[in-house]
Amino acid sequence: MFTKVGTAHVYVADQDRAKAFYTEVLGMELRNDTPLYPGATDRWLAVAPKGAATEIVLFKPDDGPSAHYKPIVGKSQAITLDVTHIRQLVADLKAKGVQFAQDVDVQPWGTFATLIDSEGNQILMVEEPGG
Questions:
Q1: Contact 105, 87 (CB under 8 A)
Q2: Cα-based distances in Å from 26 to 49, 58, 114
Q3: 74 and 87 in contact (C-beta within 8 Å)?
Q4: What is the 3-state secondary structure (H, E, C) of the chain?
Q5: How far is CA 112 from CA 5, 9, 41, 53, 81, in A?
Q6: What is the pLDDT at residue 115?
Q7: What domains can you pick out in the chain, each with its CATH number?
Q8: What is the pLDDT of residue 131?
Q9: Residue 93 dihedral angles phi and psi, to the nearest 5°
Q10: CA angle 60-125-104, nearest 5°?
Q11: CA of 32: how far to CAs of 15, 58, 127, in Å?
Q12: What phi and psi, each to the nearest 5 degrees, are found at residue 113?
């Protein structure tokens, strides 16, 4: 039986810069930061909103088996962050210097905005209707 989605990946070029952005700017908690294997310089780096079940892995593609992910860095990522008080959150993030590809937009399915992370990735934020 399936119980939850464990991780979602956001592909990054610089794990330290991404870690700082997701923890210090977005306020997520650091869940894991360990080498991928003994002696590796790249890490299994996971963050999540406080109390969330699913973690976001800030994954740096290498020249080996994950090389096909390199072109995805800096693009729109297939991940959505559920939020509350989106207008205030966007204002707070803009005050911290966060750039947005799409400002707050109200649609029947929810209110959304698309932030640009430290790596140029576009991350969708959605507040459910009535939220």
A1: no
A2: 9, 14, 13
A3: no
A4: CCCCCCEEEEECCCHHHHHHHHHHHCCCEEEEEEECCCCCCCEEEEEECCCCCCEEEEECCCCCCCHHHHHHCCCEEEEEEECCCHHHHHHHHHHCCCEEEEEEEEECCEEEEEEECCCCCEEEEEECCCC
A5: 22, 21, 36, 22, 10
A6: 97
A7: 7-62+74-127 (3.10.180.10)
A8: 64
A9: -70, -40
A10: 130
A11: 12, 10, 27
A12: -150, 155
> Side chain identity at 53, as an amino acid letter?
A
CA distance 21 to 16: 9
Tokens 């810069």: give the residue: 17
What tens digit of pLDDT does each residue of 42-67 get? Answer: 899 999 999 999 999 999 998 888 89
